[in-house]
Design a protein that fits this description.
The complex is a heterodimer of chains A (about 110) and B (about 110). In chain A, about 0% of the residues lie in helices and about 55% in strands. Chain A has about 110 residues and is mostly beta strands. In chain A, the strands form two sheets. In chain A, strands 2, 4, 5, 6, 9, 10 and 11 form a seven-stranded mixed sheet that branches. In chain A, strand 4 and strand 5 form a beta hairpin. Chain B is an all-beta fold and about 110 residues long. In chain B, about 0% of the residues lie in helices and about 55% in strands. Chain B is built from no helices and eleven strands. In chain B, strands 2, 4, 5, 9, 10 and 11 form a six-stranded mixed sheet that branches. Chain B starts with a strand and ends with a strand. Classes of the chains: A mainly beta (about 110), B mainly beta (about 110). At the A-B interface, strand 10 of A face strand 5 and strand 10 of B.
Chain lengths: ~110, ~110
C-alpha cells in the first residue's frame, strides 16, 4: 500500500461511452499527477495539479478531461475514446514538485477501449 | 529532444550482482530517480541521486555521473523477488519527470 488508491482497477468501455477514473491520496500531498503507461513505452505524463490548480497539460487530447476538486482527490473523465487509448492509467502524488520529492503511485486502472 | 535510454531486458542469476544502466539527455537536470515496478503493480521509489557518486541503500546502490549523463542501479545478492521492471527517470529544469521505458529484470534460480 502506497497511500494512493485508484478505482476502478479494470475498465472496459466502448468508444461512445463516458466513464471516470478516480484517484485518492491519504499522504497529505499537494501535487497530483495522471500518467499513461503503455507496454514497453516510457511513462507519459498527462496532467499535473499543484494545490488543486492544473500546472501541466502535456498536449493531451480533449477526450481526456481532468478534475481536481481538492488536494486529496483527482479524477480523469473519459469520453469518445479510441482503441489506442487502451493502457494502464496511473495516478501519483507528491509534495510540491521540487528537488528530490518522490512520487507515490497508485496501482493503476487498466483501461481497454473496444 | 529529451531522451532516457536503458536496456529493455536483462537476465541474472539468484545470488549474483546485476548493474542496470541509464543514459539521459534532458533540458536541465534536477536529479535522477530509480523506481521498481512489479508486474501489475504500482512503481515504487528506490533511490534519488542529484550529486555525482554512489548512494548505497542495503542491497541496492545507485550511481550518478552528471558530466556523462549516466546512472546505474546495482543490485547485489539477487533474490527471486527482485524480478521486476526498473524505471529510470530524470527531473528536468521544470521539475517534471522524464521517464525511460524501463528494464525488465528476470532472475533465474
Amino acid at each position: 500500500e502506497t497511500g494512493v488508491t485508484q478505482t476502478p482497477r479494470h475498465l472496459v468501455m466502448g468508444m461512445t461511452n463516458k466513464k471516470s477514473l478516480k484517484c485518492e491520496q491519504h499522504l497529505g500531498h499537494n501535487a497530483m499527477y495522471w500518467y499513461k503507461q503503455s507496454a514497453k513505452k516510457p511513462l507519459e505524463l498527462m496532467f499535473v495539479y499543484n494545490f488543486k490548480e492544473q500546472t501541466e497539460n502535456n498536449s493531451v487530447p480533449s477526450r481526456f478531461s481532468p478534475e481536481c476538486p481538492n488536494s486529496s482527490h483527482l479524477f480523469l473523465h473519459l469520453h469518445t475514446l479510441q482503441p489506442e487509448d487502451s493502457a494502464l492509467y496511473l495516478c501519483a502524488s507528491s509534495l510540491p514538485g521540487g528537488g528530490g520529492n518522490e512520487q507515490f503511485f497508485g496501482p493503476g486502472t487498466r483501461l481497454t477501449v473496444l | 529532444g529529451q531522451n532516457i535510454d536503458q536496456p529493455t531486458e536483462m537476465t541474472a542469476t539468484e545470488g549474483a550482482i546485476v548493474q542496470i544502466n541509464c543514459t539521459y539527455q534532458t533540458s536541465g537536470f534536477n536529479g535522477l530517480f530509480w523506481y521498481q515496478q512489479h508486474a501489475g503493480e504500482a512503481p515504487t521509489f528506490l533511490s534519488y541521486n542529484v550529486l555525482d557518486g554512489l548512494e548505497e541503500k542495503g542491497r541496492f546502490s545507485s550511481f550518478l555521473s552528471r558530466s556523462k549523463g549516466y546512472s546505474y542501479l546495482l543490485l547485489k545478492e539477487l533474490q527471486m523477488k527482485d524480478s521486476a521492471s526498473y524505471l529510470c527517470a530524470v527531473q528536468d529544469s521544470n521539475y517534471q519527470l522524464i521517464w525511460g521505458a524501463g528494464t525488465k529484470l528476470i532472475i533465474k534460480p
